[in-house]
Structures are given as C-alpha cells and as structure tokens.
Amino acid sequence: MFRAAGAGMGRRGQQMTMNGAGRRSGWDIVLGIVLVVVGLLVLANAALATVVSIFFIGWAAVIGGIVLLVQAVVRRKEGSVWSMIVGGAVLLVLGIFVLRNPAAGLVTLTLVAGALFLVVGVTRIAMSGAVPEGRWIVVTSGVISVLLGLLVLLNLTTASVLLLGILLGVQTLLEGVTVLVARRGPAGAVSTPRTTGAPA
C-alpha cells in the first residue's frame, strides 16, 4: 500500500514539474513586452542610440581597465599579473580615446563591425559544404552577411551614425520576442494528474 501511494505521489510531482516548467509568469510577459517596446524605440531613434552606445562603451572600457589594474596591484605578489596590466592599460586607453574622440570611435567600431560581417559571411559560404542538409540556409545567411559587410564598409560615414543603434535595437527586439515565446510549453503538456493504486 505504501509503495503504491509513493508511486502515485511521484507521478503527481513529475506531472506538476512538467506543467510548471512550460509556463510563463506574468513578469516574463511584462519583461518581453518592455524589451520589444524599447527595441522599437531604439530603432526609431537609431542615431541617438548610437551616440549613447558609444559613450557607454567608452565608460565601460575605462571602468573595466581600472578594475583590471586594481586587481593586478592586489595580486602582484601572486605573479603572472602582466596580462592583467596589459589588458587593463589597453582598455583604459581605448576608453579614454573613445570618450575624447567619439566620432573617431564610431568610425573605428563601425569599421570593425563591417569587417566582422564580411569575414563571417565568407566563412559561412566556405563552410557550407560541411552542412549538406542545411547548405542553402548557411549559404543564404553567408551571402546576407557579406552584403551587410560591404554595405557598411562602402558607406562608412553613414553607417557609423546608425549602425550601433540599429544593432542595439534589433538585439533588444529579439531579446523581447525570445522572452515572450521561448518559455511557452509544448502543446498538451498540461495534463490532469492520475492516481494509480495497487492492492496492498
């Protein structure tokens, strides 16, 4: 009798876990909606978002560089702190440069982004033969990345004003959509718990 009761409780707990795992809370829905709205607002004001982004990146680099240098001083007795010193110094100099010359920082980051788009696209096209089942999808995404890279690199001045804001807006929008749909449980996951018993 005790064994049958224990088995029934185990089944109930498992079904309740499955039912709860696929549900989204109200906070998930609110967060997803907020992220979607913020993403749309950023896309509508891409130039302003780009300026805010470059200053954020500059201050983040400065703070990160200072933190690394402080850690290097604290751990100086442990040895092998040269990587922290070099990394902190590079981040600090980069952050100060971006904050003092935001226009140059924008152009530099846009140039790096365009080059990354181009390299990633060429790499995907070259490696598409290793994925026979989804070859066309890989090739298509690679071609799109190459076109984006060329578009950015050939229109560097215009792209530098909008690119970071557009990327930030798209990323925020995708995050919101993901939060809204990712935790949706599979159809039929909610089921009525059943108790089965066996004669003692």
Automatic annotation (TrEMBL):
The chain crosses the membrane at residues 26-48, 54-74, 81-99, 105-127, 136-156, 162-182. InterPro entries: Acid_resist_chaperone_HdeD, DUF308_memb. Coiled coil: none annotated. Keywords: Membrane, Transmembrane, Transmembrane helix. It holds the Pfam family DUF308. The keyword Cytoplasm does not apply. This is DUF308 domain-containing protein.
